[in-house]
């Protein structure tokens, strides 16, 4: 790789170290190096490219909009693109699911959405404490870090991260104790020392935390516990929303309606920065301008998102395809686990958010490197990077899926054999 990156770019860079290539263009499920080498993308921009790279259906709409000098930067001014987004999102996503949310545009990234949610629940309840979960990841700004579990990322804050209390995520104790035994006991015990929480924030499937998927009944139990104790429920759907697990929202299977939903990454359709915070109308108590940001109105992203809703969420074709492809990935992971029982492998996740975890924390990284050597991009996840994280674009073809799974097989065998 050209050493200009090592010479001039901060040491904080990470993905360019993992995949030492200079990428020049991308299309669908593929990235291409400057020398033309194709790489199958099973990373999808960390979940920001659910519809693939440069999706032609979305690209045409964005180009047409920009060529006619449509508004690009608009803060929270009313624009035709913003109106189209709100109308299409309501028609194609919210109404069919019986959901009623106000839409806030908090800024360009997922952590902006989480920060706005944390501020809002504290304003609504007058309380300070937030309940989060073990191995959670919610962003890299201070409020989001306070409800994130990873010690390395928390350490980067340089100050105490306060007003947040972690609780055990689903199956944290391998089913040895009833769900919420510890959490509910602390809530009900006046001597527990637990400050009365304003809200609970949860990922229904923890991506960065290791592809840890919660059960629908666990989520329903959490929802009921929140209602019982006057806590608001925030679902962080930044990475697992927009169809990643199959349904548009990752919480749909559980049949719950969170008070607040945080979204970013693929919500913008084309990989452009965009985030939304969905708020039940009775909780929308913001004063005008109380939470704002210069880039909270990315109009080209509104255009791409609106077209994505029309193309992919007017029916259930993408949802069914994602579930079926995810089951295919799960079957191959099970085959590999059976082939190498001594490695202690475990298959994780649902939809097209899948993971292959190992007891030896070095194995997943070796498999990721072996995949790259075979021209496929695969990330690792988990507190010790012990999980191979499989997240291709939802729009990949069956042939591309099988090609990627064969590369995964070859890479696992090369490392474990």
Relative strand content: 15-25%
Give, in spatial order, the strands making up the sheet with the most strands.
4-12-11-10-7-5-6
Question: Which percent bin holds the helix content?
Answer: 25-40%
Q: If you average the pLDDT, what whole number results? A: 96
Number of domains: 2
Shape label: globular
CATH class of the largest domain: Alpha Beta
Number of helices: 14
Q: Helices and strands: which structural class?
A: alpha/beta
Radius of gyration: 21 Å
- Record field, number of beta strands: 17
CATH fold descriptor of the largest domain: Aspartate Aminotransferase, domain 2
CATH architecture of the largest domain: 3-Layer(aba) Sandwich
Terminal Cα span: 30 Å
The biggest beta sheet reads: 7 strands, mixed
**At the fourth CATH level, what is the homologous superfamily of the largest domain?**
Type I PLP-dependent aspartate aminotransferase-like (Major domain)
Which segments are poorly predicted (pLDDT under 50) over 5 or more consecutive residues? none
Enzyme class: transferase
Protein name: Diaminobutyrate--2-oxoglutarate transaminase
Pathway: Amine and polyamine biosynthesis; ectoine biosynthesis; L-ectoine from L-aspartate 4-semialdehyde: step 1/3
InterPro entries: Aminotrans_3, Aminotrans_3_PPA_site, Dat, Ectoine_EctB, PyrdxlP-dep_Trfase, PyrdxlP-dep_Trfase_major, PyrdxlP-dep_Trfase_small
